[in-house]
Amino acid sequence: MKKLNTTELIQKIEKLAKQRMASDSVVSLDEYRALKNKLDPKTLLIIEDDPSMQKALVRMLEPEGYILRMAKDASELTSLLDDNPVDLILLDVGLPWINGFEIAEMLKQHRDLKTIPLVFVSGSASDEDVKKAFQLGADDFLKKPFDVEKLKKTVKVLLKVKEQS
Fold first, then answer.
1. Quick one: 18 and 62 in the same domain?
2. pLDDT per residue over 104-122, tens digit each?
3. Most buried among 11, 22, 23, 133, using CB within 10 Å?
4. Cβ atoms 64, 40 nearer than 8 A
5. Whole-angstrom Cα Rg for the chain
6. Number of domains the chain is built from
7. What's the predicted TM-score (pTM) here?
């Protein structure tokens, strides 16, 4: 039997799942979405320097089926950018050395990363900060402490909009 690499295994599983789904007479939309999320989980990049906030975000978002990649500052971010692509970025403003606004400006100048939804999650939410975030291309700005359900809904809506565009 031929040994499969990871890509081939994923393709084989997806093909079989699609064949089985197609043979079902009726598949509810919820069942389809659940299977799609398992086969194609979305990856979120979280740039947050506070370890307790990182843990809280993991507890909130991992159960939703997202793959989470963490960076505590710009130096850790550089090692993540060469890895697999991300579907959404959560970014704190108050980061050491290079702040969130500076990172956002650089991300929005990148040919591939500029289209990724960007959500600022920050304790600093003056009117000027919020205005600056949107001028830099943010899709939303959530002030800490934020409502967990609002965060989940924001992520879900932005990923859906990205998928449809």
1. no
2. 999 999 888 889 999 999 8
3. 133
4. no
5. 18
6. 2
7. 0.75
